[in-house]
Fold this protein.
Amino acid sequence: MGQWDNGTMGQWDNGTMGQWDNGTMGQWDNGTMGQWDNGTMGQWDNGTMGQWDNGTMGQWDNGTMGQWDNGTMGQWDNGTMGQWDNGTMGQWDNGTMGQWDNGTMGQWDNGTMGQWDNGTMGQWDNGTMGQWDNGTMGQWDNGTMGQWDNGTMGQWDNGTMGQWDNGTMGQWDNGTMGQWDNGTMGR
């Protein structure tokens, strides 16, 4: 079951479950799930999902999904998806990739890529990629990746990975890994 150090809320290492450091809300490394650093809202690296840096709203690199830099609302380059530069509200090259409405920062509908609404930093629905709502830092539902709600630091449900609720330091239920409830220091 690995190591759990509750002096600092500490380190939890479960072999395949990786490392969870809650002193800084810290680092969570799950082998194929990558690294999750919540001190700065930090870095999330999921192998094929790439890098997600939310300190500056930062960089999201998904291999085939390209680079997304939201410090300046920045540059989104997806190889076949073209370039999105929002420093100047800039340039978006979609060729066959559909509709981009920048009057309201608007709606991005790519048939199989779904809807991207940046008026509220909005909703991103990619069929298999689910829903990404950044108005509240919101909800991220990836079918097999589950739900990630960072408004309250919220709920993370990964089907086989269970539920992680950090609003109250909350509940972590991993099916075979059981329940971790730190509101009462729990089980």
